[in-house]
Amino acid sequence: MWRFAVLGVLAVLLAGCGERLPTYRYKLTVEVDTPEGVRTGSAVREVRSGISGSIPAPGSVRRAVAGEAVAVDLPNGETLFALLIEDQSLEKSPRILTADAGHVAQYVFMDRIKTEPGFVGGSEAYKSYVAALSTRTYRAEVPRQFYPQLVRFDDITDPTSVEAVDADDLSASFGEGYALRRIVVETTDETVTRNIEEWLKWLPRIYELGIGSEFNPEGIPIGDFRGLFTKGDDK
User: What's the count of helices (H) and strands (E) in the chain, helices before strands?
Assistant: First the structure.
């Protein structure tokens, strides 16, 4: 059902002879050094995009991301989350656009794609990026400027206890011996991840709990709170 929802959004955005572009998927993996060794978590996301027709702006690129936040279980019983942030949330944040889940794979592999046969620049560049990401295999560490927002919950049963985590100082949030080792992104054809509710039992009821766009915890870009953890499903 989530596929139909995403396609429905794009159908409206591309109205007026718009052009739908190939879909691609990427896996984001977060590795954390802990006192008991390296712990990892990953999530597969899907990016659908197209070039708009007559609305809202002819020739502009529109994207829809489906997938989830990354969850990393730590040996102290806590969980580190790497959020699924899109443009609308970043409008409320001082963070740069490159943290956006719809851009991260493109930006990390951009320079490599530019050197490959068949790349077309200028106004056709985005089409070249999407074509490459949807057909070729890439894998690399994510540079620091492209990192997603990291968070934890003081009480994972309470969504209002969410706290920002400094990627450069995990020990401040989790204690001595914790550090972010690296974040890796790779193109993939694996199934889009759908298991975030194993950690966040309250997520399906988030709106019933009265937590929406007015919820603005310090240091975390909030637009749709639920959308920071999951997008593109049928709920």
Answer: 5, 11
